[in-house]
Amino acid sequence: MERGRRACESKEHRKLSIPANSKSQLFGKDHSIRNTMKKLLFAISLTLTLVTSVLADGTIQGSPGAFFRFQLAFGDQMRHPTVADGFTFGIFYGSVSAGLSRLTVAPQLATVSPTTGLVTGWPLLMSLPGTNPGDEVFLQVRAWSELYPMEFHSNVGRVTLMPEAGPGAVIWTLGSTPGRITPILYPVPEPSTLALSTITGLALALSFRRRINNRN
Fold first, then answer.
1. Predicted confidence (pLDDT) per residue in 160-196, tens digit
2. What's the pLDDT band for 33 if we cut at 50, 70, 90?
3. Interior CA angle at 52 toward 50 and 54, to 5°?
4. Residue 88 dihedral angles phi and psi, to the nearest 5°
5. Could you give the CA distance from residue 178 to residue 155 in angstroms, rounded to a whole number?
6. How distant, in Å, are the alpha carbons of 120, 123, 161 from that of 143?
7. Could you tell me if 172 and 64 are in contact, meaning their C-beta atoms sit under 8 angstroms apart?
8. Does the predicted TM-score (pTM) go above 0.70?
């Protein structure tokens, strides 16, 4: 009986045991699968990095600082805007290839601070949606208020955008650095006002011509 039991156990052991060459094949397959997974994860990580870099926005230095006080031209006089004027300031931008007629306002807007001429609301590092680092863009500051029938525009700047992590491209100047924006804004009639002025001018011209024809 004992001899028979041992013979059965030996048979069961042989059934359950795995040959050495089979073990080697299994471990080899497992190692190969791990390497394949590592390569796949690396490829996914690299793809995500590339996509993120492509989707990253270009940046500028949004806040002009404590010494940059805007001045608006009211007729022959230049003065710093105050809180009571109710002005909102926006930075407009667009690609150089698209031209000046297609500028878009940046999401962050600014208003006049208690210190006349200074504005608040623009972050130090400002992203410009729809752009990429390295893009060359036109920039312009515009100010508007419900209390005034016209907008005020700065000169047009031209800079190359910086990476999303910063530092942003410097766009401000208190001097005459080419491509940067100065703190002086000049009045520009709104489209409706300009259209009304054009119609009025045409009407006066037609009236004047009729008078001349009637005299003749």
1. 999 999 899 999 999 989 999 999 999 998 654 333 3
2. low
3. 70
4. -110, 135
5. 11
6. 13, 17, 23
7. yes
8. no
